[in-house]
Design goal:
- The protein has 31 helices and ten strands.
- The chain has 806 residues and is mostly helical.
- The strands form three sheets. A six-stranded mixed β-sheet has the order 6-5-3-8-4-7.
- Helix 3 packs across helix 13, helix 23 packs across helix 30 and helix 28 crosses helix 29.
């Protein structure tokens, strides 16, 4: 066995890293070594991922959270004015809310508390026995005075009086009141005279005929207001009666002017000194029968405070809080602080979280519906999802900016209702853009419903907005379907505006029925809905080029640009490959006519036909439509080389399409317009030149790489390409011959299986055949069929086979 030796690399030999290991493989090996997938948590995670698509759902929720944040994020309400300042501009509330006016509530509670009158206890029987103790005390002390022999000497008499002070406690006990030493000495000196006794009793009887009140300081603020007297009657089983009284009708025990002896019987028999002392003694015995009940008053006033309901202030969105030039009051500052509080980040985050969960739930339900009922008809690409998400986010931002501008100008300056501008928002732009990007009608319809939900939540659950955006969005999608020129976008906006006008008119009439007048509001809202449709078309015209560039979409607007024959590729083709240029124009006319008949995208089919052979420009002389008469380069090369050159124009065309950003549909048409067709001419030529003993010619080597046409427009280009090339090669294109070419080529492609992957039906093929025959007969002048035409039919078939391969 020979020994294998490794040769030493030379100078020009690339040096290879023999010990290099792919880091991604090492990471996978490290993950496998962990054995996470074998654990219970790992298996649970994998099952949840397979069943519920956790990662995709997480990304969906993050997007919905971002969308909700932009929906509810608002411009900061910059108001830092202080009480007493002059407002430099009008300030309106950016949100609708209800708050408690603490200042007004506190004032109302103080007023309610002060409205409760002070409570006094009134004892009508308090003076029933007030004179009895006076009589007993005077009588007993008179008898004691009489027992003493009073000297005539004044000094000795004063000493006796001082000694008699030992009886003062007994007198006070009988009287039930304290008296001063001076008054007691005066009574002793007067020997507890009956005259003084009667004067005291008469004074007490007179004074106690009134209500005598003992009111603390500051209790009676206004003597004209009533007070409440709680009658204390122990015989009534503690059931008290309350009566109303006035302070000015009572005698204040603390007011000396309320108690006088002028009208008292026996007053005139007393000297000045006796009058003064008698008044002092009677006043000391007297007490109040109307006393302040502090606890009862405090309890009732507290109850009155608690019964006062908080003062609610309802602020509507865009309601004027303070006008320019006005003095800012405390209530204004309170409202400003409440707005800042309600618009805090924590509140926005909470609302955004709830809205994100709502949006994510709606999207998941919609996708569940599509998987269950429309799985075979809808193909949702990741690019479509990204584009739809970006469109919704962009239109939400545009709408918020639009509403802000309208509210800060027209609403603030002219006092218009902000509801009007909600209908004028360009919300139909989102369905219009997506309708131009996505082919599936079901997916676009569900997208319109989702967009309507988003805008309804954004404008405080306005059902009118949902109805208008949903119905108007469907009308907008219908308007941009298969638009063939830019004016169709504006027509779609006009159509959407008219639908919005009608919908808003009806909804406003239904919701405002019974209110007078409603005509102005109905008219304003309807006009705003019409303007919203027009503005949506302007937004679409501005956004669609950007969306096309970012997500590499080929919309009808881009197809309109590509259909212009002044495109650089078409100008280059007319110089390098004029025959191919003319061939492409004819194929484009054929495809456009047939696409209209079968309901395919006529504009896409035509543009695809224009660019399907751009790969021939580098080797134009090798294709029959560009060759000079009598010269064919394929005569000097092998059939294998000829096959390679022919097949290369597909790859070269796709590369040129990507370089010039023609879009995926056009590039797909370039790659699919030959399918896996057999290049029969060079295949047969290779068979003729091969040695039957040594060479074996594979048929697969002489077929185009494909893929086969995947959609109707690509199949139309394939058929038209072969039919036009075959018709061009006829020396005598009579109607019969042309019809035979069309029929044989369509039948041949069908039998070869080239049309198996597109969704053309037999009825479609019949319609395509009639359409192509009509166009071919119109392009090639009809001539009188010669007698030998039928004999030439067989020859035409042979030519067709050779032309098909080119």
């Amino acid at each position: 066995m020979a020994k294998v030796t490794k040769s030493k690399p030379g100078k020009n030999t690339p040096r290879l890293r023999s010990k290099y290991r792919d880091h991604s493989q090492r990471f996978r090996e490290w993950v496998d070594e962990l054995g996470f997938e074998q654990t219970f948590l790992g298996r649970l995670t994998l099952n949840l991922e397979k069943r519920f698509y956790i990662r995709k759902s997480g990304l969906l929720f993050l997007y919905c959270l971002l969308l909700a944040f932009f929906m509810f994020a608002d411009f900061d309400f910059q108001q830092t004015a202080e009480v007493g300042q002059i407002a430099r501009t009008d300030f309106k509330s950016p949100i609708t809310f209800t708050m408690v006016d603490e200042v007004s509530t506190a004032k109302k509670r103080v007023d309610s508390e002060q409205s409760v009158p002070p409570i006094f206890d009134f004892d009508p029987n308090a003076f029933r026995d007030i004179t009895g103790p006076v009589y007993i005390a005077f009588r007993e002390l008179r008898s004691e005075v009489r027992k003493i022999s009073w000297p005539t000497n004044e000094i000795q008499k004063e000493e006796k009086i001082k000694d008699f002070l030992t009886n003062k406690p007994r007198f006070e006990e009988l009287l039930g009141r304290k008296v001063t030493n001076r008054i007691f000495e005066w009574l002793v000196e007067r020997k507890f005279s009956v005259t003084i006794e009667n004067a005291v009793k008469n004074a007490l009887e007179e004074w106690t005929s009134y209500k005598i009140i003992d009111a603390p300081v500051n209790i009676i603020q206004d003597d004209t207001k009533p007070i409440l007297l709680k009658v204390v009657d122990k015989k009534a089983d503690d059931q008290s009666t309350e009566i109303q009284g006035f302070y000015q009708d009572m005698k204040d025990i603390n007011n000396e002017d309320h108690f006088s002896l002028k009208d008292i019987r026996g007053y005139n028999r007393l000297n000045q000194r006796d009058r003064r002392n008698t008044r002092v003694l009677a006043k000391s015995i007297l007490f109040a029968n109307v006393t302040y009940n502090k606890s009862e008053t405090a309890e009732r006033r507290e109850r009155a405070r608690e019964e006062v309901l908080p003062v609610q202030i309802s602020i509507k969105k865009n309601q004027s809080i303070v006008t320019r030039g006005s003095v800012i009051q405390p209530i204004h500052v309170t409202i400003f602080n409440e707005i800042k509080k309600r618009k805090s980040v924590r509140r926005v985050d909470f609302i955004s979280l709830v809205a994100a969960l709502f949006f994510a739930s709606a999207i998941l339900v919609f996708f569940s519906y599509t998987r269950r009922f429309t799985l075979n008809r809808i193909r949702v690409r990741e690019k479509d999802l990204l584009a739809m998400g970006a469109v919704v986010l962009s239109v939400v931002i545009i709408t918020k900016f639009f509403l802000f501008m309208m509210e800060s100008t027209f609403v603030s300056k002219f006092g218009l209702s902000p509801t009007v501008f909600i209908y004028a928002a360009p919300v139909a732009a989102a369905p219009m853009i997506v309708g131009m990007l996505v082919v599936s009608g079901e997916l676009v319809w569900l997208f319109t419903v989702f967009v309507s939900i988003v805008f309804t939540v954004m404008v405080d659950m306005n059902f009118s907005m949902f109805a208008m955006s949903c119905i108007g969005g469907v009308a907008a999608i219908r308007g941009v379907h298969n638009c063939e020129k830019r004016n169709d976008i504006y027509r779609a906006g006009l159509r959407t505006g008219l639908v919005n006008l009608f919908v808003v008119l009806l909804i406003t009439s239904l919701t405002k029925v019974g209110s007078v007048p409603i005509y102005e509001e109905v008219l304003a809202n309807s006009v705003a809905g019409f303007v919203g449709g027009i503005l949506s078309s302007f937004v679409v015209m501005a956004m669609i080029p950007l969306v096309e560039s970012i997500f590499n979409y080929t919309t009808d607007l881009k197809l309109l640009e590509l259909s212009n024959l002044s495109h650089p590729l078409m100008q280059e083709m007319v110089v390098k490959a004029p025959g191919t240029y003319h061939h492409s124009l004819v194929v484009g006319s054929m495809c456009e006519a047939a696409a209209k008949e079968i309901g395919a995208n006529a504009l896409l089919a035509k543009v695809m036909a224009y660019y399907h052979d751009i790969g021939k420009m580098d080797h134009a002389q090798y294709f029959i439509e560009n060759q000079r008469p009598g010269f064919n380069p394929h005569d000097h090369i092998s059939p294998y080389m000829s096959k390679t050159i022919l097949v290369a124009h597909v790859k070269d065309g796709a590369e040129l399409g990507m370089k010039h950003k023609l879009g995926k549909p056009i590039i797909d048409g370039i790659l699919q317009h030959h399918g896996t067709t057999l290049i029969s001419y060079f295949y047969n030529k290779a068979l003729e030149e091969s040695d039957s003993d040594h060479d074996y010619v594979e048929e697969s080597d002489f077929r185009y790489p494909g893929p086969k046409p995947q959609f109707k427009e690509a199949a139309l280009v394939m058929l038209a390409d072969s039919i036009e090339a075959a018709a061009r090669s006829l020396d005598d294109p009579t109607p019969a011959r042309l019809q035979n070419i069309v029929q044989s080529i369509i039948q041949g492609k069908f039998l070869d299986g080239q049309l198996s992957d597109c969704n053309l039906t037999l009825q479609d093929l019949s319609i395509i055949e009639e359409s192509y025959e009509h166009v071919i007969l119109a392009m090639y002048h009809q001539r009188i069929e010669y007698p030998g035409a039928k004999k030439d039919m067989a020859k035409d078939g042979q030519k067709i086979k050779s032309i098909k391969s080119h």
